[in-house]
Structure formats: C-alpha cells, structure tokens
Amino acid sequence: MVNDEQPDMRLDHIKSISYLKSHAPDMLSQLANDGDAFVITQNGEAKAVLQSAREYEQNQETLALLKILALGRQQVSNGDVTSATDAIAKIRGRNSNEASSTDR
Questions:
Q1: Residue 58: its H or E element
Q2: Residues 41, 24: one domain?
C-alpha cells in the first residue's frame, strides 16, 4: 500500500547546525542510504532542510509538473482551449505543409 500523505519528519532526522558541522560525512552517508531528509535547526528553530541530490531533482521535476498542471487549469478557466478535433486537424495540416515544402 502506498502512503500518499506527507510523511511525518522522524525525530532522529532533526539535527542542530552544530551537529551538522561535526557529523556532515555521516549525515551524507545516511542520506545516500535511506534518502530521508534532515531538518537543520538553529537555536531550536527549523532553518533548513538537507536532502539528497536525487531527492532534490525529483522534487524539482514534481514542482515543474505541478506548475504545468496549474497553467493548464488556468487556461481552461480562461477559456483558452482548443478541441481535440481542431488540434489534430491543425497538426495534420502543419505536417502536410512541411511534407510538401520538403518535396520541392
């Protein structure tokens, strides 16, 4: 079963900045092994998140897809849409024009 809810931050993954400074190699190894991000605190307050490069890239891809989805929804709300039939006809027309221009 897949849990789609936001996972709770494990207490052992909340570390002070002092701990980060003295245990950075160990923390990086742990990131590589289990992928769970660390919350870095300063004076008891969360200030940063340390995550693996792989997780960061996946998060960026997810954000990009969500932005595309939001843009699409906004375009639909604004009525800026084309029917599938019109879009296919336009593509077919473009492809036939390109084919005829390369035949010359």
A1: helix 53-77
A2: yes
Under 8 Å between Cβ of 52 and 27 = no
Most confident option among 5-14, 44-53, 92-101: 44-53
pLDDT at 3 > cutoff 50: no
Residue 30 lies in a domain: yes
Nearest-angstrom CA–CA distance, 49 and 43: 15
DSSP strand pairing (14-16 vs 38-42): parallel
Q: What is the pLDDT of residues 65-91, one digit of tens each?
A: 999 999 999 999 999 988 899 999 999
Please report, for residues 14, 15, 94, the alpha-carbon distance to residue 103 in angstroms, rounded to integers and kept in the order given. 65, 66, 14
If one counts the domains in the chain, the total is 2
Secondary structure (3-state) at 48:
strand
Token pair for 65: 């897809």
pTM: 0.62
